[in-house]
Design brief:
elongated; 294 residues; OppC_N; MetI-like_sf; membrane; transmembrane; mainly alpha; 71% helix; 0% strand; disordered N terminus; transport; MetI-like fold
């Protein structure tokens, strides 16, 4: 296997990281993700947030930035900066966990459909087409309303409704790989189908899966923010989408309390932008049509 087809081993990871950093799009995306990761992982340790804690007097309700509240307070007198840091962690956590589910389901369906073809391929692709045709957001809203406002439910709903595009991409690549000479050669040496999939097919499609996975994270974060904004988020876990929801229902937008709704809005914008830039840059590196350009 050539260096450009290397899987995400330590050597392969360093190779792709260097290529990403040399690409302006990838470099900006990595910088944005490093900043948002610091905000989501490190900052909540030093600025913890307790959703049950409220302000002790009316003067602390929806106040602007001050020495006490660097980013102002909300309608309950809670510190917005602490909410922002905590919300970053929840938004990123939901996005990544939902993406893991989506990637496992989509990659599995795509590989098996593309490798075995025939009836299994037809059956799996009809299921995939169904989920591609059905509008995902209304279905997420319906399932979220049915199963409750729980962070686990939100992750499962988003994850199990975000896999069709991954399945299609992986299937297409697997169909191409199945025509390569190494497949019949491996069979002639006694390799089983599962062994061929594990040792020959999967390593070749892995860079494509990773590139698509990075882009899926952005979509899952947006889906969580949308569900939370319309009131279907977990009220016990403050995410950026939940902050936007409460800023809207509390009238903060109408009252010009910009410190309440702008930070989570820009947070969602930047984290989605970061994953999108890195995803497209990674795709450019791993796509054979662009390798001569990178």
């Amino acid at each position: 296997m050539s260096r450009k087809d290397a899987t995400l081993t330590t050597h392969g990871f360093k190779y792709f990281l260097r290529k990403l950093w040399r690409d302006p799009m990838g470099r900006w995306g990595l910088v944005i993700l490093l900043i948002t990761s610091f905000v989501a992982v490190i900052c909540p340790i030093f600025f913890p947030f307790d959703p049950s804690k409220v302000g002790v007097d009316a003067s602390s309700i929806l106040t602007g930035p001050s020495q006490t509240h660097w980013l102002g307070s909300d309608e309950l007198g809670r510190d917005v900066l602490r909410q922002f840091f905590s919300g970053a962690r929840i938004s990123l956590f939901v996005g990544i966990m939902a993406t893991i589910i989506s990637t496992i389901v989509g990659s599995g369906i795509g590989v098996f459909a593309g490798y075995y073809m025939g009836r299994l391929d037809g059956f799996l692709m009809r299921i995939t087409d169904f989920f591609l045709v059905v509008p995902a957001l209304p279905l997420m809203i319906a399932l979220g309303a049915i199963f409750g406002q729980n962070i686990t439910v939100i992750i499962m709903v988003i994850g199990f409704l975000s896999w069709p595009r991954t399945a299609r991409i992986v299937r297409s690549q697997t169909l191409s790989l199945r025509q390569r000479q190494f497949v019949p050669r491996a069979k002639s040496l006694g390799s089983t189908n599962l062994r061929i999939i594990r040792t020959h097919i999967t390593p070749h499609v892995m860079p494509l899966i990773v590139a698509n996975t990075i882009l899926v994270v952005a979509g899952c974060i947006l889906s969580e923010a949308t569900l939370s904004f319309i009131g279907l988020g977990d009220p016990d876990r403050i995410s950026w989408g939940t902050m936007l929801h409460f800023s809207f229902v509390s009238g903060a937008i109408g009252r010009g309390a910009w410190w309440y709704f702008l930070p989570p809005g820009f947070g969602i914008l930047f984290i989605v932008l970061g994953f999108t830039l890195v995803g497209h840059s990674f795709e450019k590196i791993t796509n054979p049509r662009h390798r001569g350009e990178s």
